[in-house]
Design goal:
The complex is a heterodimer of chains A (259) and B (357). Chain A has 259 residues and is α/β, with parallel strands linked by helices. Helices cover 31% and strands 27% of the residues of chain A. Chain A is built from eight helices and twelve strands. Chain A is globular. With 357 residues, chain B is an all-alpha fold. Chain B has a single domain, classed as ABC transporter involved in vitamin B12 uptake, BtuC. In chain B, 66% of the residues lie in helices and 2% in strands. Chain B is built from 14 helices and four strands. In chain B, the strands form two sheets. A two-stranded antiparallel sheet of chain B has the order 1-2. In chain B, 48% of the residues are buried. Classes of the chains: A alpha/beta (259), B mainly alpha (357). Chains A and B meet through helix 2, strand 8, helix 5 and helix 6 of A and helix 9 and helix 10 of B.
Chain lengths: 259, 357
């Protein structure tokens, strides 16, 4: 784990009208780290992710990616900067196959002078897809299958394989296993381990305590829109984390969150 | 690691499910309908054993009754051009009801720029504009028509994409507006007597040439270009398309514009073929175009279907129309049969989807 800071946020805040969904989040992650974000429903986990990935525009605060201050106008900007997100709701087009989905919105093309009618380079996309699947250890016998014909786990694997195909600089997963069965969850967790071995930084939003304890280095707990704890995995345990989530405990440096 | 790394739940490739494209089903339906008419020709007492498809009179050195084949495709070619555009709109999970009246409005407008100065040595009795608009190069009326179509399409698309009006309502409004424009343009009078070069656009088998060439072009565009891929993606999962960074709204405007330009071009071809433009032209064209797409397997929920399917759907309607004429049943039966076939096509499509899920 190097000292290079992958992502830093300062006073990141988001209001939806009068609702303070996220309030003054200060966050920092180092290269190679896997960080879990936990918290009750409505604690601000997904809101936090949406501000970083440009899906929504923050009310105030600053975000730095690899030391560079960033402000994304939309999710594509964030992706171009190297942030790959696996959303809670799967962002896959059911009627398209695996390569089409991986490259949706940033297709490999030729004859680019044709503008919107430029041609798709199916061959190059297929090759890159296979390479990406191999990197993550996802095995899909036929990538020409449409997403519609796949199980939930397979779909999630496709969504995750996107991150590997594009040499992402930061991967964010928003509850990637929430809708999956046991075996499928194991598959996704294996992919996360593969990313860890490769030193790819990852933010994992999850409700699953066992999974979090298994996979990550550090746990950030959100409560009512504020960060209330920053725990190294070695210094904590499941009960402790639950105490922070429910509000029974608050770390002293985040005392204002207890109010 | 155990076999969990081996594809979740073992994603297998079921050849039987994939290698049978939907278009094959439509093609077989088409064959079955042809065979039914062939049999009817043999067994109906008043038909004297005529053949629907084959040349049995031996007057020409051909296997098929070529005149019938030509008529089958000629009578669906113009609506088929509209259907190519409607197909794209439906793939984005939209609908375009404005195409029929747009055909009439474009026919009136384009024809006004295609008139000849002298008809049998006399001034053109149907002249809309002064002498400056007479005997213009054929490109002028065509471009004017296409620009008008592009404008209508841009308005449709803007209402659908930016003002979030349901496509059904937005294009229903445009349906009435375009019919109004067609009636207003020359106060209900027909616009006639075009130049020879304009007539050529719709002469003989030219409508079929336009239909098939445009079908090939848009087949390539939908299957092999970014435009096509994004069209399917939007119909498949609009949210995913947006999150992937596709400019969904701009793309929708483009799709509606292309659809309306195709309908406008159909208006040009129709007026050229008829050598006249009338405000009542193109009645029910929008519905037949949608019917061709639906019979061709284009899913109204978006994301699925192809130009090949729509062309086959057009052929099905053409065969039914010729077939009913062939067995001497009049138009009323044709409409009833077409209605039944459209419903059957949708039922079959739903059945197929259930089986696949």
């Amino acid at each position: 784990m190097s000292d290079e800071v992958v992502l830093r946020t300062q006073d990141l805040t988001k209001y939806y009208g009068g609702v303070h969904a996220l309030e003054g989040a200060n966050f920092e992650m180092k290269k190679g780290e896997h960080i879990a974000i936990m918290g009750d429903n409505g604690a601000g986990k997904s809101t936090f992710v949406r501000q970083i990935t440009g899906v929504e525009q923050r009310t105030r605060g600053d975000v730095w990616l690899y030391g560079e201050e960033v402000s994304f106008a939309g999710p594509l900007d964030a992706r171009e900067a190297g942030i790959e997100t696996v959303f809670q709701t799967l962002a896959l087009a059911d009627d398209l196959d695996v390569p089409d989905n991986l490259f949706l919105g940033r297709e490999k093309t030729f004859a680019d002078w044709l503008g919107p009618f430029r041609f798709l380079d199916y061959k190059a996309m297929r090759k890159a897809t296979l390479a990406g699947l191999e990197k993550t250890g996802v095995k899909i016998p036929n990538i020409k299958n449409t997403i519609r014909n796949m199980s939930g786990g397979q779909r999630q694997c496709v969504a995750i394989a996107r991150t590997a195909t594009f040499h992402s600089r930061l991967t964010i997963m928003d509850e990637p296993t929430a809708a999956l069965g046991v075996q499928e969850t194991a598959q996704v967790e294996n992919i996360i381990r593969t990313l860890k071995e490769a030193g790819e930084p990852l933010i994992l939003v999850s409700h699953n305590m066992r999974q979090v304890m298994d996979l990550v280095d550090r746990i950030i707990v959100f409560r009512r829109g504020r960060i209330c704890a920053n725990l190294r995995k070695e210094d904590t345990n499941g009960e402790d984390v639950v105490a922070y989530i429910t509000g029974a405990k608050t770390q002293p440096e985040y005392a204002d969150a207890a109010a | 690691m155990t076999d969990t790394s081996h594809g979740v739940g073992g994603l297998t490739f079921d050849k039987t499910k994939r290698s049978w494209p939907n278009e094959m089903n439509i093609f077989f339906a088409l064959l079955i309908i042809v065979i039914i008419f062939e049999i009817l020709g043999q067994i109906l007492p008043y038909m004297n054993g005529q053949s629907f498809l084959f040349d049995t009179r031996g007057r020409f050195d051909t296997i098929f009754n070529e005149a019938r084949l030509q008529i089958i495709i000629l009578q669906v070619a113009i609506i088929g051009i509209i259907a190519l555009g409607v197909t794209q709109v439906i793939i984005t999970a939209g609908i375009d009801l404005s195409s029929g009246p747009l055909v009439a409005a474009t026919a009136m407008i384009a024809m006004s720029f295609a008139q000849t100065e002298l008809v049998n040595g006399n001034p053109n009795p149907k002249a809309i504009f002064g002498l400056w608009a007479m005997d213009l190069p054929v490109i002028v009326p065509v471009v004017v028509g296409l620009l008008f179509g592009a404008m209508i399409g841009a308005i449709n698309g803007t209402f659908v994409a930016y003002f979030r009006i349901p496509p059904f309502i937005a294009t229903l409004g445009m349906f009435l507006i375009c019919r109004g424009i067609a009636l207003w343009w020359s106060a209900g009078r027909p616009v006639s007597f075009p130049t020879e070069s304009y007539k050529f656009i719709g002469s003989g088998m030219m409508p079929v040439v336009w239909f098939l060439s445009l079908a090939v072009i848009f087949h390539i565009i939908l299957r092999y270009t970014v435009y096509g891929k994004h069209t399917y993606a939007i119909g498949s999962n609009e949210e995913a398309a947006r999150m992937s960074g596709i400019n969904v709204r701009r793309h929708k405007v483009m799709v509606y514009m292309i659809a309306s330009m195709l309908a406008a071009f159909a208006g040009v071809v129709l007026s050229a073929k008829a050598s006249t433009a009338q405000a009542g032209m193109g009645e029910f064209y929008e519905l037949f175009a949608i019917a061709m797409a639906v019979i061709g397997g284009i899913s109204l929920t978006g994301g699925r279907g192809s130009i090949i399917g729509t062309v086959l759907g057009a052929m099905v309607l053409g065969v039914i129309r010729s077939g009913f004429t062939f067995v001497k049943l009049d138009g009323s039966y044709q409409l009833m049969a077409m209605g039944g076939i459209i419903i059957a096509a949708v039922i079959l499509d739903q059945y197929r989807q259930r089986n696949r899920a």
